[in-house]
């Protein structure tokens, strides 16, 4: 008997800070299986980190660190000329901060997923990817490393023997080399929720995605990212959760076998 398809549904959370409230964390948590919590560099603050960890534990959602570049104004989406050593230090610092809150609340940290520009840079820059993977390996080699499917970050994690989860995006378009279309370019975002859901179902069930030029690209979907800060984020989370269930896909946090 063929085992059912399984996929993780993850969402970026804990992006509020100070007086600024962002996202719909509490409402979306029942519909996802893992959360990537901002660690204070691109968004978030200590109080928000603690609150978000507690919410994840209440909903039995796997907790991940979401380290980014030190750029609150740009929300971590602007590239910075950081060295591999600087990236290593940033990831260790932010991972350690969130791990402290998770431990203090009696939880277990599950994964690490870089944020924004750091994520996209590590997808194509092998030296940067290796620094991030090494940071995770040094702090806790049992954690899962989330990275863009087929990217340098996935390869770096596998090279170190880390568990990896190849990530696909519901609301982003793809280039022929497997990278995401830059947000600075037209058609980077898929704004039609039905189109986004069709893309997800095809990636999960067929292992293919249609690139922006119109050609199919083979892709592995271990975890699907949805965004929690849009005007229709909650409705989309509910809809994609239901559609995947109707398609016979089991939703469960990614915990993959280590490479051999």
UniProtKB/TrEMBL annotation:
Gene3D superfamilies from the UniProt entry: Glycoside hydrolase/deacetylase (3.20.20.370)
GO molecular function: 5-oxoprolinase (ATP-hydrolyzing) activity; ATP binding
EC number: 3.5.2.9
Source organism superkingdom: Bacteria
GO biological process, alphabetically ordered: carbohydrate metabolic process
Catalysed conversion reaction: 5-oxo-L-proline + ATP + 2 H2O = L-glutamate + ADP + phosphate + H(+)
Keywords: ATP-binding, Hydrolase, Nucleotide-binding
NCBIfam families for the chain: PRK05406.1-3 (NF003814), PRK05406.1-5 (NF003816)
Protein family membership: Belongs to the LamB/PxpA family.
Subunit structure: Forms a complex composed of PxpA, PxpB and PxpC.
Name of the protein this chain belongs to: 5-oxoprolinase subunit A
Organism encoding this protein: Hymenobacter jejuensis
Lineage of the organism: Bacteria, Pseudomonadati, Bacteroidota, Cytophagia, Cytophagales
């Amino acid at each position: 008997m063929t085992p059912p398809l399984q996929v993780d549904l993850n969402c970026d959370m804990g992006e509020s800070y100070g007086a600024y409230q962002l996202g719909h964390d509490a409402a979306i948590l029942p519909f996802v299986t893992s959360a990537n919590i901002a660690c204070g560099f691109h968004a978030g603050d200590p109080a928000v980190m603690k609150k978000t960890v507690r919410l994840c534990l209440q909903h039995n959602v796997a907790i991940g660190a979401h380290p980014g570049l030190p750029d609150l104004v740009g929300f971590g989406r602007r590239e910075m000329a950081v060295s591999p050593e600087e990236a290593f230090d940033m990831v260790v610092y932010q991972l350690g901060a969130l791990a402290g809150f998770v431990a203090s609340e009696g939880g277990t940290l599950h994964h690490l997923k870089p944020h924004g520009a750091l994520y996209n840079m590590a997808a194509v820059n092998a030296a940067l990817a290796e620094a991030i993977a090494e940071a995770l390996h040094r702090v806790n080699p049992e954690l899962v490393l989330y990275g863009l499917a087929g990217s340098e970050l996935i390869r770096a994690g596998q090279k170190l023997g880390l568990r990896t989860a190849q990530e696909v995006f519901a609301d982003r378009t793809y280039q022929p080399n497997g990278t995401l279309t830059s947000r600075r370019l037209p058609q980077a975002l898929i704004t039609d929720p039905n189109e986004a859901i069709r893309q997800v179902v095809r990636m999960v069930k067929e292992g293919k995605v249609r690139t922006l030029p119109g050609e199919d690209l083979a892709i592995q979907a271990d975890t699907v990212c949805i965004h929690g800060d849009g005007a229709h984020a909650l409705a989309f989370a509910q809809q994609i959760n239901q559609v995947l269930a109707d398609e016979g896909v089991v939703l469960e946090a990614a915990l993959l076998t280590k490479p051999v």
